[in-house]
Design goal:
Elements: E1 5-16, E2 19-30, E3 34-38, H1 45-53, E4 60-65, E5 70-72, H2 84-95, H3 99-108, H4 124-138, E6 142-146, H5 154-169, E7 173-177, E8 188-191
Parallel strand pairs: 3-7, 3-8, 5-6, 6-7
Antiparallel strand pairs: 1-2, 1-4
Helix pairs in contact: 2-3, 2-4, 3-4
Bound molecules: adenosine-5'-triphosphate.
Protein name: Heme ABC exporter, ATP-binding protein CcmA
GO biological process, one term: cytochrome complex assembly
Organism: Tardibacter chloracetimidivorans
């Protein structure tokens, strides 16, 4: 594999709540690749996502990631008083993203019919689609997705899989923590539970 390295962990150890989750973790994620984090509740999957995003510092080792990764967590981080399109445009302006990219991302998550609906009125699956549209519109090469499939119906899971396929084909990389099959083809799998 010759693609640019988008994310690398070198000998990383992580402690949380007084417990060592893992140590000696070394991984690389290159352009076009996907890595799926699996393992039981509390294994440390979200912690790896947070380490990758720079929101958590490693106790040992080194983490290097592409600047400004696209991060999907359980927090929606959108103004829930605004309509879907306005809420996404607000972030797009901060991220320096063109309006056309927002509409394209909304379309890819089948959100155009919901464009004027206030975020607070959306169902949990619809909110997750909006959060995914924000990541897609953001244009980052590195996507860090924590449980991206939660709450999505079968059609929306297909849209997510299509979006990840296009992203990788365009030279992006995907790191995803998930308990379910999210349709990532040719992904490597890291069982975080087996690292304790
Ligand atoms: N802010 C925190 N302070 C202290 N401990 C924390 C904190 N956040 C998480 N932990 C602990 O770190 C461990 C790993 O949590 P993490 O969220 O990374 O697991 P996970 O594999 O993503 O779990 P799940 O499948 O439930 O989402 C858990 O034991 C958790 O209690």
């Amino acid at each position: 594999m010759t693609g640019a390295v988008l994310l690398s962990f070198d000998g990383v150890a992580c402690r949380r709540g007084g417990r060592r989750l893992f140590s000696g973790l070394s991984i690389d994620l290159r352009a076009g690749e996907a890595l799926v984090l699996t393992g039981p509740n509390g294994a440390g999957k979200s912690s790896i996502i947070r380490l990758s995003a720079g929101l958590l510092a490693p106790d040992e080792g080194r983490v290097a990631a592409s600047a400004s990764p696209g991060l999907l967590t359980h927090d929606l981080a959108l103004d829930d008083m605004l309509g879907v399109e306005r809420a996404l445009r607000f972030w797009a302006r901060l991220d320096g993203v063109e309006e056309a990219a927002v509409r394209e991302a909304m379309d890819s998550m089948d959100l155009m019919p919901l464009a004027p609906v206030p975020v607070r009125m959306l169902s949990s699956g619809q909110k997750r689609r909006v959060a995914l549209a924000r990541v897609i519109a953001g244009g980052s090469r590195l996507w860090l997705l924590d449980e991206p499939g939660v709450g999505l119906d079968a059609h929306s899971l297909t849209l997510l899989a299509d979006a990840m396929r296009r992203h990788r084909a365009a030279g992006g990389g995907v790191l995803a923590a998930t308990h379910m099959d999210i349709g990532l083809e040719n992904a490597r799998v890291l069982d975080v539970g087996a690292m304790a």
